[in-house]
Amino acid sequence: MTSESEIQFSAMPYGEFLEYVEVIAAGVHKDGWLPDYIVGIGRGGLVPATYLSHKLNIPLLSIDHSSKVNVFSDDLLVYLAGCCAAGERYLFVDDINDSGKTIARFRKILIDNGAVRENFRFAVLIGNVSSREVTEYVAMSLDRRLDKRWFIFPWGAVASREAQERDAREDPDRLGLASAPGDSVPFPM
């Protein structure tokens, strides 16, 4: 059994990532709701969005939420809200919906700036069933109240242990971990 402050790193094999992209693409086709654009949410959603863009043959846009530079994030969302109001459809893609903060923020900015709710949706590779936000498309579900794994996606595998650890602890709501300064974090070899 692990203590509450330990992070359980879990590497996602490339083949599993591809299967998740296929699941989302199949869901979009089955639903019949086709977006005009796929929008990758940076940083973690950029690679899945690129693959989904190729799979569905739909153009790709990106928003760099992780940079916290408004001109690459919030300002672009305000612009896309106007496009949504004019009838364009957008599928926003992220790697994982943990706490739901990112999705809630995006939805709020879009709606507050006139986007038509029927013209945008969200897809994630992994969805947390206990998140405060629900996405329209999810390849795999988990419950963060029980499952504390921090997923190392194929594109994140090149990061150092320290960077992975820092990312995992950046927002305590993601994993529901106690984050005390100086905690040691085991990392499987």
UniProtKB/TrEMBL annotation:
CDD domains: PRTases_typeI (cd06223). GO terms for molecular function: glycosyltransferase activity. Keywords: Glycosyltransferase, Transferase. Transmembrane segments: none annotated. Gene3D superfamilies: 3.40.50.2020. SUPFAM superfamilies: PRTase-like (SSF53271). Residues 164-189 are annotated as: Disordered. It comes from the Bacteria. Residues 164-174 have a biased composition (Basic and acidic residues). This is Phosphoribosyltransferase. It comes from Novosphingobium subterraneum.
